[in-house]
Design goal:
This protein is an alpha+beta fold. The protein is built from 11 helices and 9 strands. α2 crosses α4 and α5 packs parallel to α8.
Length: 295
């Protein structure tokens, strides 16, 4: 069994190369917390890499340009696709990834998936976007890697089956309809937050009328959305502020008031921690990029 070792260049986390000789197609897996402004050099793999952003924001680049990944976003990189991490934003850059010889694994265990693998291979660049479908199988694979159980190899193989199905279905059928109806309480909370992200919601107010206690709501909401209600609210606020900084001349003080922050200083601290730059610097960068695009 390969050692699970601390991530070499990360603040925290682990890496495992070839976690088990019984599952050689799982070549590498890791979970890492990176320091702000860390980069990862341009590289490509001979096999497949799957990546899920759990917290923070990161700019990933391939031959088609840059894509910003936020919490819950992911990418899938095929063999030979060159890519690099251009910039980490925020203080909580947290992700999980795996490098897999998916062609060999699918040919042996999941032949029904082969057509999706061929289509994905021909894409020639990163698949990116919201990737909640990858969260559970990646978490299962991390747990199987890091627990020395009697059936560890079986757990690794089963989790790898689930991950391969999830990542190729996600890449080829990203708009596939969900067969699981959203819980009415979750839908109500999302509607409230999306409609009024600037309101200073308490958890009790969000839970009102859902038929749930605040604690139970957090459990159900987290299970379906992958975030707590507070995290969802903060993400909605920051998304609105980013758009306003790019598209309006509203002052930071006004944005703090509009989006439920105690002060402009409070907004600036949270924005810098999550996005990786001060609001004014973010606005200047967005204006500069818009000017360049317009030329």
């Amino acid at each position: 069994m390969s050692k699970v070792v601390p991530a070499r260049y990360a603040v925290a986390g682990f890496n495992a190369q070839l976690p088990s000789p019984a599952v050689p197609q799982l070549q590498y897996i890791g979970e890492e917390w990176l320091a702000s402004r860390t980069d990862i050099a341009d590289h490509a793999h001979e096999t497949w890499e799957v990546y899920l952003q759990l917290d923070g924001e990161a700019d990933w680049h391939d031959r088609a340009g840059a894509t910003t990944l936020g919490p819950g976003d992911g990418y899938l990189s095929g063999p030979g696709v060159r890519h690099h991490l251009g910039r980490v934003r925020g203080l909580r850059h947290h992700f999980v990834f795996a490098i897999i010889d998916a062609d060999a694994w699918v040919a042996t265990r999941l032949p029904a998936l082969a057509s999706h693998v061929r289509r994905a291979r021909s894409h020639g660049r990163l698949f990116t976007g919201p990737a909640d479908a990858l969260r559970t199988p990646l978490r299962l694979l991390v747990e199987a890697t890091t627990r020395a159980t009697a059936h560890r190899d079986l757990a690794l193989a089963t989790a790898l089956d689930a991950l391969c199905v999830a990542m190729f279905d996600w890449a080829i059928e990203p708009e596939a309809a969900s067969l699981r109806p959203e819980h009415p309480a979750v839908a109500l909370v999302r509607e409230r937050v999306d409609r009024s992200p600037g309101r200073r919601w308490t958890l009790a107010e969000l839970a009102a009328g859902t038929g749930m206690t605040p604690k139970h709501l957090c459990t159900v909401f987290g299970r379906q959305v992958g975030q707590t209600p507070h995290q969802y609210l903060l993400a909605a606020r920051l998304a609105g502020i980013k758009h306003a900084l790019a598209d309006t001349d509203l002052s930071i003080t006004q944005l703090a008031e509009d989006y439920g922050f105690a002060s402009s200083q409070h907004l600036a601290r949270v924005f810098a921690a999550r996005i990786g730059s001060a609001p004014r610097a973010f606005r200047a960068e967005q204006r500069r990029m818009a000017d360049q695009t317009g030329r």
